[in-house]
């Protein structure tokens, strides 16, 4: 949004420059060459006076052709494809039922072009982008899935211990592609609101992809669904206000939904007491009712971890809360395919 000072400056420039131009046109209308020469001179003067208030051309060009900045509104067919991204099938992995595997039904994949991205595909899609994921341990698992795709196996394995350092942030880069990946430890909703209202507002640029998620810590330590809903409303307001003063589209924003909780498998008495099906349903309702999701007019597109974890079933979790990498691999590919559709870009 243009500041008041900028608006006053623009108005003054218009008065000072366009009024003389109009008068010149009135008096010089019989001499077309002289009139257009004067008009050209005054137009150049206008440009010089207004240039401090306008974004630079290189910035506009970079923004217009950034691989993750949508070039045009999504078509109705693209919107319908995004709505079915979570419609994946689960089956026992081969051979001999070694874990679980997911896939899109062939007809759906053919109709919408859904596909698992290779390392090269993902690097091309995210070329030059800044990806930020903020939240709790579930958000770390999503970052790990992304690093396993972007990095070679040895580099991803070396990154894992640093990524999972307790209560810490993490940064990784893919220099050859100019990709930056940041994990921000933000287990409570107030952490996310502060990130949006303070840290990112002061940053020289905003992330191209922003994934946020919370709820597990609130459910365990606060156990108050309406209060959680109020905190979600604050996050939505902060995300909606995350706009650059320049005409650059906001980040692609995703919300990491809560996983299915298998209460008997939870590893502490406090978790078993507070993190039950009734409480999970209450927290999910708050997400549905607080206009935080795109389908409800909010800023975030849902990554439905709950649906995917239910599809993978109980055998995909060891502690009733954190799920195997295959679940977050599915979450990551759903996000990347949504980016492909939103960016009007086909790999």
UniProtKB/TrEMBL annotation:
Q: Name one GO molecular function term.
A: acetyltransferase activity
- A GO BP term, please? xylan biosynthetic process
Query: Mind telling me which residue stretches traverse the membrane in this protein?
Result: 6-26, 33-54
Q: Name one GO cellular component term.
A: Golgi apparatus
**Domain of life assignment:** Eukaryota
Main location as per UniProt: membrane
Q: Which UniProt keywords apply?
A: Membrane, Transmembrane, Transmembrane helix
**Where is this gene product found?**
Membrane
Q: Record's PANTHER family?
A: N-ACETYLNEURAMINATE 9-O-ACETYLTRANSFERASE, PROTEIN ALTERED XYLOGLUCAN 9
Protein name, please? Pmr5/Cas1p GDSL/SGNH-like acyl-esterase family protein
The organism named in the record is Triticum urartu (Red wild einkorn)
Name of the gene this protein is made from: LOC125512390
């Amino acid at each position: 949004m243009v500041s008041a000072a900028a608006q006053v400056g623009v108005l003054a420039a218009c008065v000072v420059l366009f009024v003389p131009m109009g008068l010149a046109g009135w008096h010089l209308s019989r001499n077309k060459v002289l009139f257009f020469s004067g008009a050209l001179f005054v137009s150049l003067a206008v440009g010089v006076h207004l240039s401090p208030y306008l974004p630079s051309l290189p910035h506009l060009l970079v923004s217009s052709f950034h691989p993750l900045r949508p070039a045009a509104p999504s078509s109705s067919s693209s919107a319908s494809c995004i709505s079915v991204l979570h419609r994946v099938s689960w089956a026992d992995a081969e051979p001999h039922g070694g874990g679980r595997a997911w896939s899109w039904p062939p007809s759906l994949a053919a109709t919408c072009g859904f596909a698992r991205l290779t390392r090269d595909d993902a690097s091309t899609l995210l070329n030059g982008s800044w990806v930020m994921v903020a939240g709790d341990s579930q958000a770390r698992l999503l970052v790990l899935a992304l690093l396993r795709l972007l990095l070679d196996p040895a580099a991803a394995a070396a990154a894992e211990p640093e990524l999972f350092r307790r209560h810490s942030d993490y940064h990784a880069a893919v220099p050859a592609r100019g990709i930056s990946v940041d994990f921000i430890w933000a287990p409570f909703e107030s952490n996310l609101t502060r990130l949006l209202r303070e840290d990112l507002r002061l940053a020289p640029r905003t992330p191209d992809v922003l994934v946020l998620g919370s709820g597990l810590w609130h459910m365990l330590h606060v156990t108050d669904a309406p209060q959680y809903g109020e905190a979600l409303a604050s996050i939505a307001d902060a995300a909606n206000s995350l706009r650059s003063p320049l005409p650059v589209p906001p980040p692609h924003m995703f919300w990491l939904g809560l996983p299915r909780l298998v209460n008997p498998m939870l590893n502490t008495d406090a978790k078993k007491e507070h993190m039950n099906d009734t409480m999970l349903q209450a927290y999910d309702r708050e997400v549905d009712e607080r206009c935080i999701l795109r389908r409800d007019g909010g800023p975030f597109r849902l990554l439905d971890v709950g649906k995917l974890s239910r599809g993978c079933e109980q055998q995909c979790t060891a502690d009733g809360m954190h799920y195997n990498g295959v679940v977050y691999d599915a979450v990551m590919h759903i996000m990347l395919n949504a980016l492909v559709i939103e960016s009007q870009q086909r790999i």
